[in-house]
Amino acid sequence: MIKLNRRKAIALMGGAAAASSLAAPAIASNRKIKVGALRFTSHSGSFVAVERGYFADAGLDVELQFFQAAQPMAVAIASGDVDYAVTAISGGLISLAQKGAIKVIGGALTEEKGIDGQQILVSDAAFKAGITTPAKLDGKSYGITQTGSSFHYVGSQIAAQEGISLTYKPLQKVGAVIGALKSGQIDAWNIVPHIAKPLSKSGAVHIIGAVSDYLPNYQTTTVFTSAKNAADEREMTESFLAGFSKGVDDYTAAMIDKTGGEDGVNQMVDLIHKYVYTDRPREKAAPSIINGTMRLNKNAALNLASVEHQLNWFKSEGLVDSSIGIDDLVDTSYVEIIS
């Protein structure tokens, strides 16, 4: 196991440009940790666990650290700047796992039939030119944050299943992709519904399909940590997963099962609004937060088959070393494995 400083972690990214329920954690002594997140509704498990004291109950004093893309978060885990994070699998994350710096320890966001998931978007210019279904994207430009990002993976799956080719445009940050799509500098993109639906209502972009049509049961994001934490800090890691999972349970109950009715939804929206769409008044943020409701895996269960599919694609594209195996990437000892 190795611990990397930030410079070494970035260098190692190189060419990448099981229990059924969680053990109750021992109460630690208010241990301070940092948890990486994006300002997306899909990261609500962490937000709820902080706000409702579930991390504190598990003996953890959590500071949230926010990022704008997946790969910088992977670097932060490898360098020790962040202890745990939830994000999509990227080429950078896989390469760092191969070097013994990172381990996936659970699952978070997943695509599920019957729940609106990630949407496939096109610019208004592309839509007016007749790009009204993903099958018509042949030869068009597709926005991604980085080469080897989850957006790159999803775009490739759409292209493969439709028998088309896409030109990928790395734009580094989600905000930059949104700007490029709205201005017609790129033709298409995929993103979670709390971003996709408001964009489509603006008229600047249009929804032409759903990611779940191409990737049912896609393990969109995973929970991960440093290989050192996974191997040597089992109590802390189980404590984190337990607190996080309680946050997920509350989120699911309020937003999907709606066990608390309208009041429960409103309370959850109030909580999430502290972290998502903070630049908007609550009444304008609420519809987007509600639109972003997707399934977060109970007890951080991990769809290993989906993760393996992603890994194999990264290898087939030459974005990571062909020798890396699933055991290099995933520690299956922490959570239930599903398929």
UniProtKB/TrEMBL annotation:
Subcellular location(s) per record: Periplasm
Pfam families, per database record: NMT1
GO BP: any one term: alkanesulfonate transmembrane transport
Residues making up the signal peptide according to the UniProt record: 1-23
Annotated InterPro entries: SsuA/THI5 (IPR015168), TAT_signal (IPR006311)
Keyword annotations from UniProtKB, A to Z: Signal
Keyword ATP-binding recorded: no
GO cellular component: periplasmic space
Gene3D superfamilies, per database record: Periplasmic binding protein-like II
Ranges where the SsuA/THI5-like domain occurs: 41-252
Similarity-based family: Belongs to the bacterial solute-binding protein SsuA/TauA family.
Name of the protein described by the UniProt record: ABC transporter substrate-binding protein
Organism of this sequence: Hwanghaeella grinnelliae
Lineage: Bacteria, Pseudomonadati, Pseudomonadota, Alphaproteobacteria, Rhodospirillales
